[in-house]
Amino acid sequence: MAGLTAQTPNPTSITVHEQSRVLEIGFADGASFRIPFELMRVYSPSAEVQGHGPGQEVLQTGKRDVGLADLAQVGHYALQPTFTDGHSSGLFTWEYLYFLGSQQEALWRQYEERLAAAGKSRDAEMAPPPAPGCGHSH
Question: Which CATH number does 12-118 carry?
Answer without folding.
Answer: 3.30.2020.30
